[in-house]
Design brief:
Elements: H1 2-5, H2 9-14, H3 17-26, H4 45-55, E1 61-68, E2 77-78, E3 86-94, E4 100-105
Antiparallel strand pairs: 1-3, 2-3, 3-4
Pfam family, one: DDE_Tnp_1_7
Protein name: Transposase IS4
GO molecular function: sequence-specific DNA binding
Length: about 110
């Protein structure tokens, strides 16, 4: 768990581990009654859309990114030949300096 592996005094003095876990279990990005059933990432889609809107710039470079994940989740990908073989795949547009300005999580089926 992130809280256990990396200790940061500024964070641990501001919020306790139990309070952090309580906030993370109750945070929502969208209304659960109006979810798009064709989108596997519908619960976090508004977060991706807002970040993409705020971070867009001109002349990006498109690149595939991998986020390591070894747990159970149907959206997890096996990427042969990569240092991170199991995890989530993201398509990201980056600036010349490497800043991510647009990203889209890979899904097996496109959103309709």
């Amino acid at each position: 768990m992130m809280w256990e592996n990396s200790h940061n005094n500024a964070v641990s003095n501001a919020i306790s581990r139990d309070r952090f876990e309580h906030v993370m279990t109750n945070i929502h990005c969208c209304d659960n009654d109006n979810l798009d059933t064709n989108d596997g990432l519908a619960k976090v889609r508004p977060l991706f859309d807002k970040m993409n809107q705020k971070c867009s710039e001109n002349a990006p470079h498109v690149k595939q990114h991998s986020i390591p994940y070894f747990g159970r989740y149907p959206g997890k990908q096996f990427i042969k030949g990569k240092s991170v073989q199991y995890g989530y795949k993201l398509w990201g547009a980056t600036t010349f300096y490497g800043y991510i300005v647009l990203f889209e999580p890979y899904q097996e089926q496109d959103r309709k």
